[in-house]
Amino acid sequence: MNPAIHRIERLALLLTGMATLTCLVATQQLPWVLGVALGGLLGVGNFYLLRRIVGSLFGGEASSRQQLAMAVLLTLKFGFLAVSIFLVIRFTPVNALALLCGISVVVLAIFVEGFRTVLRGAEPNLKS
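Request: output the structure for the sequence above.
Response:
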């Protein structure tokens, strides 16, 4: 597995923690802090599952039946994410904007890792 993907996951968790602490200090309001924390965890969890499913889907040794099952699982994962976001907004005292900021932490981690890779140069062990 590409080590950059693992760095993105770790960086996203770190950024989620930093954003949650920053929100706690800056706002001291539970809906904002909870929104950033839950959004970050949903985003990181979604990224992790996406990595696992796509890795299985394109792993090379999967039969066409297994690939179909993984494609269905990928669709179900997105449905589960949508339902999870709805339930969090509906039944917890989170701020929706804070939840969106938390989910977006994964995107920020991807950009940071991309810039880091470009500035450092591509790793020799990466497969194109």
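The chain has one domain: 3-120.
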